[in-house]
Description:
209 residues; mainly alpha; 2 domains; 9 helices; globular
Amino acid sequence: xxxxxxxxxxxxxxDAEAFNEIVRNCQKRVLGTVYRLIGHHDDVEDVGQExxxxxxxxxxxxxxxxxxxxxxxxxxxxxxxxxxxxxxxxPAVLMAEMGDDQxxxxxxxxxxxxxxxxxxxxxxxxxxxxxxGQISEHDRMLLVLKEVEGLSIKQLKxxxxxxxxxxxxxxxxARQRVNRAHEKLLARAKTPLSPRPVTPQLHPxxxxx
Length: 209
């Protein structure tokens, strides 16, 4: 997700084409992030549209173009939180509600082919989605941004406005909860989750986060 600084500045000055360029460059990433945060496929586009409405209305408040990416993630997280609140239901089960067929269809749409490597990647995503469905929305969003979206601790500080130490502790505890959920999931299962079980790579040591 790369947007040139000059494009952002033009959009801040009211250049409609520059804003459209921002949308084109960021739309796919924003929609993917929204899906992973809310786990409800039917509403992804609506939430994504809300994100870009917020971008349009608050772009002038962006203090520096260098922090645009972290700023956009913060808007995306806030929009996802608002969506979950409006649904007035337990957000922790939303990702777990998706059936195997629906998950496989999403994988098929993205990849186009079901090769062996892609199958194993799909299995890993399926396990990860199930595990994320067992923890709180706060833990899930933090882990999605760090483990799936690949944000650094520095970027997470921009998103959450928290210290590096506090974020590392939160990540450590969230990873512990996911690992416990994984152990319980395996204990309950009569058969393995996949022929080749894949455990999400969640680092247990907060120092190395």
